[in-house]
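Dear colleague,

Following up on Tuesday's group meeting, I ran the structure prediction for the two-component complex that the binding team flagged. I've pasted the input sequences exactly as they went in, so you can double-check that nothing got truncated or mislabelled along the way. The structure tokens for the whole assembly follow below. Feel free to forward this to whoever is handling the docking comparison.

Inputs:
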Amino acid sequence: MTTPWQQRYAQRMKWMGSSIIRELLKLTERPDIISFAGGLPAAETFPVAEFKTATQEVLTQHGSKALQYSTTEGYPPLREYIVQRMARYGITAAPENVLITSGSQQALDVIGKVLINPGDQILTEQPTYVGALQAWKAYQAEFVTVPVDEYGLCTSQLEEAVCCGPKFMYILPNFQNPAGVTLTLPRRQKLLALADQYGIPIIEDDPYGQLRYEGEHLPPLVVLDNEQLEHRAHSNGHGFMSGNVIYISTFSKILSPGLRLGWMVAPQDVISRCVMAKQGMDLHTSSFVQMVAHEVIKDGFIDGHVQFIRQLYRQRRDVMLAALEREFPPGIEWTRPAGGLFLWVTLPPEVDTTLLLEKAIVEKVAYVPGSAFDPSGGSRNTFRLNFSNARPEEIETGIRRLARVIERALSETEAPAPIVTDVQLVGTH
Amino acid sequence: MTTPWQQRYAQRMKWMGSSIIRELLKLTERPDIISFAGGLPAAETFPVAEFKTATQEVLTQHGSKALQYSTTEGYPPLREYIVQRMARYGITAAPENVLITSGSQQALDVIGKVLINPGDQILTEQPTYVGALQAWKAYQAEFVTVPVDEYGLCTSQLEEAVCCGPKFMYILPNFQNPAGVTLTLPRRQKLLALADQYGIPIIEDDPYGQLRYEGEHLPPLVVLDNEQLEHRAHSNGHGFMSGNVIYISTFSKILSPGLRLGWMVAPQDVISRCVMAKQGMDLHTSSFVQMVAHEVIKDGFIDGHVQFIRQLYRQRRDVMLAALEREFPPGIEWTRPAGGLFLWVTLPPEVDTTLLLEKAIVEKVAYVPGSAFDPSGGSRNTFRLNFSNARPEEIETGIRRLARVIERALSETEAPAPIVTDVQLVGTH
């Protein structure tokens, strides 16, 4: 039931498309379904008591300020906190390099608004975060992709892709969403060298960097980029944020996603332009939310809290990996993430995981089909599993159900051919 | 200090431009300046105690939910509340017609994203809300303007402007920002008839509709549009939201702007598309903020609160109007708003209020120059005054200072010629 003007204007709205996957995923919200589809943190990690204390404190001490308009850049003590926290990871920024955003999703939208012209090419990993695709398709971006394998982005294929002149490269180096893989140090260096050589900025999206369950922390791209530029004396003399990397992160996975609180770090000139863009988008991120979050975290709360989250999610990851090992039929591969929230499953090429999802929902289990994460619409025989939001016993039951669905699907198709895909993944049965 | 890629990409960022006014307004944040520049509600209206109770209640009863991801459409009880509240003003919508946004500013951005193609014409009032211009310039919109006078948009000039084929019309019918004028009922009807005749949708922005200090409430455009369509049997049979008007409003002026909480009401098909757009923008508006706001207002709080705000702002408006009458030199005009937060001053045409602002700041008083609100860069001899945020004695002192600045400027220019401007405004000295 649309009016004449809606019919006339439908053209413009086309980029949003319809989505079978979106419709299917709505079904997964039924309480009887064990869903590995979302990217939800475990609600039991939310520090409700701390929020209760913090809201009273903020409203008692600074009620007028918390409920009033504030500056687009963000609450100064929160920007300062972020600078201090990032310094531990070697990111040397000043508060002027930090913009507070309404979740890191908004940072992606701001970047689209400031950088993308219709028809611009964006280089992404294949697969990549679906929210970035959604944000940038609205600016009529096009996508060129480079596959990931167990070591992250396949940098050996990068130079060829870079030659097409992408506007920027979008990289999730740590425990990538959706594949769960981590970019190795040599590949980070290769990526940055190419970025510098071709003068192409990198958007480094790092929502899970602090959620590592094993192995050594690797330096963020923004840190390595800065070192590289300092060696070449390209530095602006302040020693920070003069390079090719825009870094974005979020409080969603280490505090609460319901706040909608993230940030971006970039050269000051870029931040100024992003501030102007954000002004037209929502004026500023909720002052109340910013001040309450700062009150919760200002005295070191995140340190212990992140340890607690790591322990919980590590256990769930282990339970899921063990269940996959035990339950899944032969011929299926999956990644073994060293951190984050997700792992990635590759079925024999003849299986379409979007079709399979309908059957999974009947068996009361759900995932996100891989094609959702692939700008080129490929990866049809893959899916993403989230392990942070289900309890261990649910994970075991859910994987058992899923194994049954897959077994049935495989028995209905021909005997599987040898698996050859663009994405080489670790962990076979 | 910019990197090579920043220099290369500066082109794209041009729409944000530099702004002398923005730079000047930064100076007005100095505590010794009496600023009539902002659009801030009075902090003494913020219900801090109610927020303290509500946050405890929400976190105790629904902590996990308030801190978790939620749906893009918004918190269902809040959408239901908005439906109920709007029904009092004759707006008959279902929850499916309501999208919760991060302030009404985000509604403007969503609309830009869903509707505007580069080069599209948008019809606005002259002057109009600067945040709408900012939001839509980012989508490379162009603007065609129709002046306002003391009765609101000059609908006699509308048909000529509509013939250029604007994508939509953007109208603030009540206590317009910045001019403070209200669109009369006959003009509302004329506007809607033209919208229907030419099939051009209207964005009705109504942040102040509940803040009327005198006179009769006028029906919103969305209500009149619906009546018009029902008479012509264009209705979809449900009796609501099938017409030409998208209505947007906000909790900023009746509860707290620091929350960043607004909403839009539109045909369901439009809302669906806006939901998809918003998903790529910030996933959803803070669940915590939505649930706390709902907790504060759910049992009728707004009713009494709006009365309190009306009383406070009515007094401040009266103090400002009396001070203008008393202090301002002859040859100056201003509007006498029946509600809202702003009034609009017109100086003799030879005075440039952007240049004058520098002198005003020296005298420790500030306003926003009219050219900021004029897409065509005109209105150079006008400025906007806010009367909600300063205490009565500050208003008197500030207007006295401003009168002195203006007197000096007038004495430095030639004797003023008769005033002829596009915008005919009420209230002369």
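DSSP finds 14 helices and 14 strands in chain B.

Cheers,
M.
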